[in-house]
């Protein structure tokens, strides 16, 4: 019985040990082989990832070195540009300084010559004054002398008469002496020339900034009115009494004598000039491609809608138009309408300006600053812009407007 109990205890103990050594639900022991494999896999992934990061690091360092080199080159190029620009302006200043010095020296020389001549004339008259005073003193002494007899007085009459005769031969004025003065007429011509040079220089300095953004405009012959004839190069156009032959285009103007440029403006800054002096009435501006092409209502006329901006000359009046509103503009005294119109567009800023391209005078600007006048809360371009031109139909059917052309611009 005891043996059976011992055997039972051993069996129970054995059962108890088996229960104790049986793995717990979260024991890692059964997964040792799997964990080792996962660890090995993770090491490989980390090594691969590390290699990728090192490669990216080297690529980044190389790119940064390239950027630094570009930055250094950029700085070097900018410094060189600044140096060259300063040289050009220094050359202009030297030319102006040299011219100023030469003009001032000529004025000073003229002053010295005139002053020297006047000094000689003054000395001559001073000598004459001394002679006159000497004779005057002689006569005074004779008059104040002691009483003398009749015979002595008669003897003195002869020299006295001679003195009086000499005094009667007074010094005559010399007309040449009266003409000694600075050349006022020449001086006024100089001032006029300098004033014109100053205005021309100011205009050229303004123009050179615009010419940096000069754009070659080519007129689109396909969409222009059928009576507008465009030259083969697309740089000139005129109104013909007869319609051009060829098929009709859906985007062609059918009533209003308009023409557009062939290339759209969608970014950046652009400047061009149009010669209008051979045209009695005209409009030059810019328009969206959505400008209406059919009919004669305001939607197809430059400046009479929200889709276009223009400078217009008609019936002797110059004006700027947008959104069917206009501003009357003054012309140069005695000059009339501008002969050349400059158009500047800054597309990102929604800005367009019209210039008298000869005087480089701003005639009208369209931007957010003048939005209230033209009922625009914000002035930004929302579509591609095209250079736009318009002829006005002559009131006399026997006459037709002459031509406009795009000016060649070069620095």
From TrEMBL:
Name of the protein in its database record: B30.2/SPRY domain-containing protein
SMART domains xref list: PRY, SPRY
InterPro entries, per database record: B30.2/SPRY (IPR001870), B30.2/SPRY_sf (IPR043136), Butyrophylin_SPRY (IPR003879), ConA-like_dom_sf (IPR013320), PRY (IPR006574), SPRY_dom (IPR003877), TRIM/RBCC (IPR050143)
Chain spans, region Disordered: 1-41
Position of the signal peptide: none
Organism superkingdom: Eukaryota
Span of domain B30.2/SPRY: 197-409
Organism in which the protein naturally occurs: Electrophorus voltai
């Amino acid at each position: 019985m005891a043996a059976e109990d011992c055997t039972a205890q051993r069996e129970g103990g054995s059962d108890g040990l088996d229960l104790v050594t049986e793995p717990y639900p979260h024991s890692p022991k059964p997964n040792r082989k799997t964990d080792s494999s996962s660890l090995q896999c993770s090491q490989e992934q980390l090594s691969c990832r590390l290699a990728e990061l090192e490669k990216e690091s080297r690529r980044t360092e190389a790119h940064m070195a390239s950027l630094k080199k570009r930055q250094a080159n950029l700085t070097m190029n900018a410094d060189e540009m600044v140096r060259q620009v300063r040289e050009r302006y220094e050359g202009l200043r030297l030319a102006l300084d040299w011219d100023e010095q030469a003009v001032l020296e000529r004025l000073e020389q003229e002053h010295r010559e005139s002053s020297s001549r006047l000094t000689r004339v003054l000395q001559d008259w001073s000598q004459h004054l001394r002679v006159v005073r000497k004779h005057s003193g002689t006569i005074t002494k004779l008059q104040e002398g002691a009483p003398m007899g009749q015979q002595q007085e008669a003897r003195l009459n002869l020299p006295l008469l001679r003195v009086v005769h000499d005094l009667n031969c007074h010094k005559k004025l010399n007309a040449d002496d009266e003409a000694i003065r600075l050349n006022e007429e020449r001086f006024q011509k100089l001032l006029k020339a300098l004033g014109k040079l100053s205005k021309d220089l100011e205009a050229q300095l303004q123009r050179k900034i615009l010419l940096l953004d000069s754009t070659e405009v080519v007129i689109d012959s396909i969409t222009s009115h059928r009576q507008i004839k465009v030259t083969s190069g697309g740089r000139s156009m005129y109104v013909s009494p007869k319609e051009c032959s060829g098929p009709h285009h859906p985007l062609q103007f059918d009533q209003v004598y308009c023409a557009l440029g062939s290339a759209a403006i969608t970014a950046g800054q652009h400047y061009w000039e149009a010669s209008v002096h051979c045209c009695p009435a005209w409009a030059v501006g810019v328009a969206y491609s959505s400008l209406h092409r059919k009919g004669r209502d305001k939607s197809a006329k430059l400046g009479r809608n929200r889709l276009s901006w223009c400078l217009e000359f008609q019936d002797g009046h110059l004006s700027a138009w947008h959104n069917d509103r206009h501003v009357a503009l003054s012309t140069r005294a005695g000059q009339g309408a501008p002969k050349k119109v400059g158009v500047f567009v800054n597309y990102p800023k929604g800005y367009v300006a019209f210039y008298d391209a000869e005087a480089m005078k701003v005639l009208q600007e369209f931007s957010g600053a003048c939005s209230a006048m033209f009922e625009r809360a914000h002035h930004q371009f929302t579509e591609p812009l095209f250079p736009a031109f318009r002829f006005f139909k002559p009131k006399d059917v026997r006459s037709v407007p002459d031509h406009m052309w795009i000016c060649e611009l070069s620095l």
